[in-house]
Amino acid sequence: MGITGTLSSDQLDSFNSQGYLVIESFANPEDIESMMKRMDKLLDDFDYTTVSVFSTKNQQRVTDDYFYQSAENISFFFEEKAFGDDGSLKKPKQLSINKPSMSLTRCSKGFSTSEKVSGLLFSLGYKKPVIVQSMYIFKVYF
Predict the structure, then answer these.
(1) What are the start-end ranges of the H helices in 19-125?
(2) pLDDT at 132 > cutoff 90
(3) I need a labelling partner for 52 at 20 to 30 A (CA). Which of 13, 16, 34, 70 fits?
(4) What SS3 class is residue 77?
(5) Is the Cβ–Cβ distance between 55 and 80 less than 8 Å?
(6) Is the Cα dihedral 126, 127, 130, 131 positive or negative?
(7) Alpha-carbon dihedral sign for residues 19, 114, 40, 50
C-alpha cells in the first residue's frame, strides 16, 4: 500500500492559511533521545581548532573554507559571545555552540526518512519529498 497523508483537513487548512503548522509531540521520546545522543557524540568528537561564529545580526558572512565545507561535512558554529578577549571559550564547548552545519540529515536520517515524516510531507502535496536540510538549534544564553 504506500505512504498516505497524515494531516487532518483542519491541520491542512491551518497550514495553508498560516504557512506553518505546530504539531505537538510529533517526534516520540525515543526519536528525540536518539538524535540527542548522536549530537552529543558529534559534539564530544568536535575539535574546535577551526573557529567559525554564527551571527543573526551580521548577515554578511565571511566566506571561509570551513563555512563552504559545512554543506558537505558536519561542522559547528559558535555563538557570537562564546570567546573572551583572550580567544578562549568563556564556557565549555557544549554550551558555546549556536548550531551545527546544514548537512545533519546524517544525525536525524532515521527520523527524517520515516513514514511519519513522509506522510506529513505527502499530506502537504509533495510527490517525491527529499530532505536536503535538517536543523538542530542549541539554546544557549550568554
Answers:
(1) 29-45, 65-69, 105-112, 115-123
(2) no
(3) 34
(4) strand
(5) yes
(6) positive
(7) negative
Of 70, 52, 74, nearest in space to 61 by CA: 52
Residue in this structure with the C-alpha cell 505546530, named with its chain if needed? 22
The DSSP secondary-structure symbol of 94 reads G
Cell 536520517, residue located: 109
pTM of the complete model: 0.70
pLDDT tens-digit series, residues 33-61: 988 888 888 888 888 776 777 666 665 55
Judge contact between 90 and 83, C-beta under 8 A.
Answer: yes
Rounded Cα–Cα distance for residues 95 and 79 (Å): 9
DSSP letter for each residue of 48-100: TTS--B--SS--S----HHHHHTTTS--EEE-TTSB-TTSSBSS-GGGTEEEE
